[in-house]
Design goal:
One of its GO terms (molecular function) is transaminase activity. Belongs to the DegT/DnrJ/EryC1 family. Its EC number is 2.6.1.-. This protein is of the alpha/beta class. It folds into two domains: 233 residues, Aspartate Aminotransferase, domain 2 (3-Layer(aba) Sandwich); 122 residues, Aspartate Aminotransferase, domain 1 (Alpha-Beta Complex). 38% of the residues lie in helices and 14% in strands. Strands 1-9-8-5-4-2-3 form a seven-stranded mixed beta sheet, with helices on both faces. Helix 5 links the parallel strand 2 and strand 3. Helix 2 packs antiparallel against helix 8, helix 4 packs parallel to helix 5 and helix 9 packs parallel to helix 12. The longest helix is centred in the last third of the chain and has 19 residues. The protein binds pyridoxal-5'-phosphate. Pyridoxal-5'-phosphate (PLP) binds next to helix 4 and helix 5.
Length: 373
C-alpha cells in the first residue's frame, strides 16, 4: 500500500464542482489582483479568528517580512525567537538587519521555552516572535507578560497554526495570531488551510498597524500612485482567495478529522517503547497540522518507511543556528541542545482529513515491524 505524506487531490475530487466553479468565476469576471473574493476572505478570516483586521498577502513569508518591518524589527534591534523552525521565522528578522536572538525550545512542545526568554532580554530588544509549531501554541500567557513588563512587540508566527486557540489562564479561548501585536498565517498548500499556490494573511487588532499594512502591500501607497512608504508588492491572487473561501467553509470539519487521525496514531503507537509522542501543554485547543513522533534510530526508520512507500517528512533536520546563512551569528553545535536533539529524532507521519484508517494502520504496523526486526 502506498501512503502519500500529503495529497490535495482527494479533497479536490470530493468537492470538484465547488472548486471549479470558484476558480472559473474569477476567470469569467477577470479581477485577478485583490478582487472581490480577497475582501470576502479577509472578512471571513476576521470572523473566524476574532481579529479586528485581516490583510491578505502573497505568502506567509511575505507576511513575516512585512510585519517585522512594521513592528520595528530592524536596524540592529534584537528579536527573540527559537531556532527550531522554518527559515522564514528568522529570515524576516535578518532581512531588515535586526539581530535574531535564539532561545532553545521546550522538549515536550517544540515551541520556544518561555522560561529562558527573560535572560536574553536587553535594552536593545525590540520584540519576540513565538512560533506555534505543528499542533500547538507557545505559552502566550508568559510571552505577553514578558512583553508588557519589558515593553516589547510580539509577532506571532502562526503560519502553521490556523484553527489553534489558546486559553491559558485567561477567561476565553483566543485564536492564534490574535494575541500578540500582529500575527501571520501561511496558506501554503499543505497547511491546515491551504491554497492552490502561495498565499498568506496578516491579522491585528490595532487600527494603525492595519492601516500601514494595507499600504505596504501595495508599494506603500495610501492611494494609487501616492507613496507614503517604500513598500512591497505582496497581494493575494483573487483565484487563491476563491479556493480558500471554499476550503474555509469546511474548516471545522477538517480540523475534527485531523484530530481523529491523530488519535488513531496515538492509540496505535503509544505503547511502542521506541517512540515518544509529544504532549500538549497549557489550556489550549490544538490542531494537528502535523503529527510528529520522536523516534529512536530515526534515519533507519525513515529509510524503512520509504522502502514501504510510506511518505514522511522531517521538520526540521537542521536548527537555524547551525545553518550556513546564519553563520555570521557565531553559533556552534551545542548552543541549543534541545533543538539539536529533537532535530535528530523527529519524524512527521502522514496526516490529512482524507487519509483512511486503513492507511494509518499500515503506517503503524510498518513502524512496529521496523522495531521488531
Ligand atoms: C510555512 C511556514 C512559513 C512560511 O509560509 P509560506 O507561505 O510558505 O511563505 C513561515 N513560518 C512557518 C513556521 C511555516 O511553517
Amino acid at each position: 500500500m502506498k501512503v502519500n505524506f500529503y495529497t490535495s487531490t482527494r479533497e479536490y475530487n470530493e468537492k470538484k464542482a465547488e472548486f471549479d466553479k470558484a476558480v472559473l468565476d474569477v476567470m469569467a469576471k477577470g479581477s485577478f489582483i485583490l478582487g472581490p473574493q480577497v475582501g470576502e476572505l479577509e472578512e471571513a478570516i476576521k470572523e473566524y479568528t476574532g481579529a479586528k483586521h485581516a490583510i491578505a498577502v502573497a505568502s506567509g513569508t511575505d507576511a513575516l517580512v512585512m510585519t517585522s518591518d512594521i513592528l520595528g524589527f530592524k536596524n540592529g534591534k534584537e528579536v527573540i525567537t527559537s531556532p527550531f523552525t522554518f527559515l522564514a521565522s528568522t529570515s524576516c528578522i535578518a532581512k531588515h538587519n535586526a539581530k535574531p536572538v535564539f532561545v532553545d525550545i521546550d522538549e515536550e512542545t517544540f515551541n520556544i521555552d518561555v522560561n529562558k526568554i527573560e535572560e536574553k532580554i536587553t535594552s536593545n530588544t525590540a520584540g519576540i516572535i513565538p512560533i506555534h509549531l505543528f499542533s500547538q501554541m507557545a505559552d502566550m500567557d508568559k510571552i505577553m507578560d514578558l512583553a508588557a513588563k519589558h515593553d516589547l512587540r510580539v509577532l506571532e508566527d502562526a503560519a502553521e497554526a490556523f484553527g489553534m486557540k489558546w486559553k491559558g489562564n485567561g477567561s476565553s479561548y483566543k485564536h492564534s495570531g490574535s494575541i500578540g501585536d500582529m500575527g501571520i498565517f501561511s496558506f501554503f498548500p499543505t497547511k491546515t488551510l491551504g491554497a492552490y499556490g502561495d498565499a498568506g494573511m496578516i491579522i491585528t487588532n490595532d487600527d494603525e498597524l492595519a492601516k500601514k499594512t494595507k499600504m505596504l502591500r501595495v508599494h506603500g501607497a495610501a492611494k494609487k500612485y501616492h507613496y507614503e512608504y517604500i513598500g512591497y508588492n505582496s497581494r493575494l491572487d483573487t483565484m487563491q482567495a476563491a479556493v480558500l473561501l471554499v476550503k474555509l467553509k469546511y474548516m471545522n470539519e477538517s480540523i475534527k478529522k485531523r484530530e481523529i487521525v491523530a488519535n488513531w496514531y496515538k492509540e496505535r503507537l503509544s505503547h511502542c517503547e521506541y517512540i515518544k509522542i509529544p504532549g500538549i501543554k497549557g489550556d489550549q485547543n490544538p490542531v494537528y497540522y502535523v503529527f510528529n513522533i520522536l523516534a529512536q534510530k530515526r534515519d533507519e526508520l525513515a529509510a524503512f518507511l520509504k522502502e514501504n512507500e510510506i511518505g514522511y517528512s522531517i521538520y526540521y533536520p537542521i536548527p537555524l543556528h547551525l545553518q550556513n546563512c546564519f553563520s555570521y551569528l557565531g553559533h556552534k553545535k551545542g548552543d541549543f541542545p534541545v533543538s539539536e536533539r529533537v532535530s535528530g529524532e523527529i519524524l512527521a507521519l502522514p496526516i490529512y482529513p482524507e487519509i483512511t484508517e486503513e492507511e494509518v494502520d499500515f503506517v503503524c504496523e510498518t513502524i512496529k515491524k521496523f522495531y521488531s526486526k
